[in-house]
Amino acid sequence: MILILLGAPGAGKGTQAQRLQASHGLIQLSTGDMLRAAVAAGTEIGLQAKSVMERGELVSDDIMTRIISERLDQPDCEKGVILDGFPRTEAQADALDSMLSDKKMALNAVIEMKTDDGVLVERVTGRYTCAKCGAGYHDSFLKPAKEGVCDKCGGGEFSRRSDDTAETVKSRLQTYHNQTAPLLPYYKDKGILKQVDGMAEIDEVTRQIEALLS
Ligand code: AP5
Ligand code: MG
Ligand code: ZN
């Protein structure tokens, strides 16, 4: 199964992808996480991506397409994947179509997580993740059961993204509307676009996605 989660910054792509990974054994392919790993490792791609990400703009289509194509060739992806953050432009969507056909894979569904921009700044600026296992949390909407302790791994260190400032989020939202939202009619025309209410509570969004998949 190959799924795309499509939605604005803070729509809940990563949150739901982690759940689908746990419940369906799919592999979450988050291009944002891959780029952050490249920045942390100081690779050539990371050096190029850092300032682009901090401005809330997009890394080049060539780089992103290459990263995803190479990742899809790894054996764990045979179990099925959730694309979280890719494609983000029409050029990336075209490239994905041709790489999947070359690899004899097919796209099963594109799930749009519909949200209003108003809630997204609070979601993004309140977000943090466990530094050890990557589990995601939120200051108001998703706290660990015991304050300061990760539910999943017991770790006590957390980190925040450098692009999660109110100012950068506004620029990321603009980028989404200009460059990524045009993919919605692209996938609607192919008859594979589905929608969930990204404004609902996290568990309810999960239920809506599960209902689409069953
Ligand atoms: P990326 O990491 O993909 O960031 P993004 O698209 O801006 O999305 P986010 O990760 O911010 O949000 P999310 O939808 O995953 O929300 P989450 O589940 O965390 O990309 C970062 C950058 O990398 C880009 O700006 C770009 O520069 C570059 N990049 C990446 N891919 C690229 C590509 N293909 N091409 C070019 N450049 C690329 O939820 C947010 C918070 O809200 C969490 O705290 C969560 O707990 C909470 N929350 C989630 N759902 C709900 C809910 N239903 N109700 C209440 N709270 C909720
Ligand atoms: Mg994310
Ligand atoms: Zn953890």
Note down, in words, how this protein is organized:
This protein is of the alpha/beta class and 214 residues long. Helices cover 48% and strands 15% of the residues. The strands form two sheets. Strands 2-3-1-4-8 form a five-stranded parallel sheet, with helices on both faces. BIS(adenosine)-5'-pentaphosphate (AP5) is lined by residues 7, 9-15, 31-32, 35, 52-53, 56-59, 64, 85-86, 88, 92, 123-124, 127, 136, 138, 141-142, 172, 198, 200-202, 205.
Key words describing this protein structure:
five-stranded parallel beta sheet, binds zinc ion, 214 residues, alpha/beta, three-stranded antiparallel beta sheet, 9 helices, 48% helix, globular, binds BIS(adenosine)-5'-pentaphosphate, binds magnesium ion
How does the helix and strand content classify structurally?
A: alpha/beta
Mean pLDDT: 96
The number of E-state strands comes to: 8
Question: Strand fraction band?
Answer: 15-25%
Strand order of the largest sheet: 2-3-1-4-8
Major sheet: size, sense and barrel closure?
Answer: 5 strands, parallel
Helicity, in percent? Answer: 40-55%
Rg is 17 Å
| Topology as a string of helices (H) and strands (E) | EHEHHHEHEHEEEHHEH
Short description:
The protein has nine helices and eight strands. By secondary structure, the chain is of the alpha/beta class.
What topology does this entry show?
Layout: E1 2-6, H1 13-24, E2 27-30, H2 31-41, H3 44-54, H4 61-72, E3 81-84, H5 90-102, E4 109-114, H6 117-125, E5 127-130, E6 136-138, E7 158-159, H7 166-180, H8 183-190, E8 193-197, H9 202-213
Parallel strand pairs: 1-3, 1-4, 2-3, 4-8
Antiparallel strand pairs: 5-6, 5-7
Zinc ion binds at residues 130, 132-133, 135, 150, 152-153, 155.
